[in-house]
Structures are given as C-alpha cells and as structure tokens.
Amino acid sequence: MTQQSTSIVLKSLSILLGLFFLFTGFMKISPYISKELHRDLRKHYVKYAKAFPMATMLDIRIPSKCSTT
C-alpha cells in the first residue's frame, strides 16, 4: 500500500467512526428512530452514569435519570 492509499483509508475510517458515534448519540437523546432502542439506551446510561471518572475532578454532577420516558 502506498502512503496516499493508507491516508485515504485512515480518513475514511475516522469519518465512518465519527458518523457512527453521532448516530448512536442521536439515538440516546431522541426517540425518533426507535422508541424501544432509545428507552434501552437510556436505561443503560442510568446504569453506567455513576462511573464517570472525571465527575469528582471537575466537580460536576451528571443526572442519571432522564426526565422523559
């Protein structure tokens, strides 16, 4: 592989990975795509929100319960 093709592959992977994270993040905050999947993602967020490692260092509190169901 040449250096140019390696660069294209890495840029493509980073763009696709970024789009994946944007999509999953959108699904967490909005139920437009799938209400059931949104509910499950929010439920798992509640389980793992307590494990935010920088919360004590930044002196912030992240609410683990969502206001909408």
Automatic annotation (TrEMBL):
Coiled coil: none annotated. It is a multi-pass membrane protein. Keywords: Chaperone, Cytoplasmic vesicle, Endoplasmic reticulum, Membrane, Peroxisome, Transmembrane, Transmembrane helix. InterPro entries: TMEM35A/B. It is found in: Cytoplasmic vesicle; Endoplasmic reticulum membrane; Peroxisome membrane. One of its GO terms (cellular component) is peroxisomal membrane. The chain crosses the membrane at residues 12-33. Its main location: cytoplasm. GO terms for biological process: chaperone-mediated protein complex assembly; positive regulation of protein localization to cell surface. Belongs to the DoxX family. This is Novel acetylcholine receptor chaperone. It comes from Polypedilum vanderplanki.
